[in-house]
Design goal:
alpha/beta; rod-shaped; D-Maltodextrin-Binding Protein, domain 2; 10 helices; 2 domains; two-stranded antiparallel ribbon; 11 strands; Arc Repressor Mutant, subunit A
Length: 284
């Protein structure tokens, strides 16, 4: 077990720091809300404990000795560090981090994990804004976004969260030849998988749906073949509800989830905490 550090009494250090900074016992007493005699007592006791003279006393007041100057530099920096840490902790308490995110990613991956975030960081509040449209992060209404794609968008800095794993899926027992492809408005991931598999995507029958949540539900109901995003639909395969008829599972940075912030904007301490947590969850 580590032994406790040898420290003078905190009231004595506070009195010393205040006298040295304010250059006077009376001013230090007013700031600390104690009497001048109490301040003087604390300083004298500190000098006795240290075995060092910290002040030269004269009719006009008190001046720091060379040793006192050196000690004030150390004590002053220590108190400043404590003050900065206290302010940072206070600003983080009850902080709200607003995240723009695709509804499907929010529902299938992020929301089920928020309990772990609350347990790890109980003072943080995360507000999810599920939307199919890319949020304008420069407007300041969101602290960060999670986007799906290739990681290149104007006006933002993107950091890879995790790649998706792509393969077509359909309800177990379905006849694939009778089913259309279920696609969203931006079917770029279907295009990526088809190119890698040598599949004629252009000639296939398709049904366009608004959101991947709807695509996933339609596939579960046997209404078509979805391009399975296994980070979100893998459990349905494991349970045998869906089947993956092709061997190829494509994993590429062109179809990945990215943590996105406005270009040139440094995230807040609370947002940085959430970003670190997201990356840890993705790594697990």
């Amino acid at each position: 077990m580590r032994s406790a550090p040898l420290l003078p009494p905190i009231p004595a250090l506070r009195a010393f720091e205040a006298v040295a900074r304010l250059r006077g016992v009376s001013r230090a007493a007013r700031e600390l809300l104690i009497t001048q005699s109490a301040v003087s007592h604390h300083v004298r006791k500190l000098e006795q404990d240290l075995g060092v003279t910290l002040f030269v006393r004269h009719a006009r007041g008190m001046d720091l000795t060379p040793a006192g100057e050196r000690y004030y530099d150390t004590v002053g920096r220590a108190f400043a560090l404590i003050a900065d840490g206290t302010a940072a902790l206070a600003s983080e308490a009850n902080a709200v981090v607003r995240i723009s995110v695709l509804p499907s990613f929010a529902a299938h991956w992020l929301a089920p994990r928020l309990g772990r975030l609350r347990k790890a960081h109980p003072t943080l509040t995360v507000e999810l804004d599920p939307s199919l449209d890319a949020a304008d992060l420069r407007a300041g209404r969101h602290d960060l976004a999670i986007r799906y794609g290739g990681g290149v968008w104007d006006g933002v800095d993107a950091t890879l969260l995790m790649t998706e794993r792509l393969t077509p899926v359909a309800k177990t027992g379905s006849t694939l030849a009778d089913l259309p492809l279920l696609i969203t408005r931006k079917a770029f991931d279907w295009t990526l998988w088809s190119a890698a598999a040598g599949f004629d995507f252009a000639a296939a029958r398709k049904v366009q749906l608004t959101d991947y949540n709807v695509v996933a539900q339609a596939a579960l109901q046997g209404e078509g073949v979805a391009l399975g995003r296994l980070r979100m639909m893998g459990s349905a395969l494991e349970q045998g509800v869906l089947t993956a008829p092709y061997d190829l599972v494509l994993e590429t940075r062109e179809a990945a989830y990215w943590i996105v912030i406005a270009s040139g904007r440094r995230p807040s301490r609370a947002a940085s905490t959430v970003i670190d947590w997201l990356r840890s969850e993705a790594a697990d």
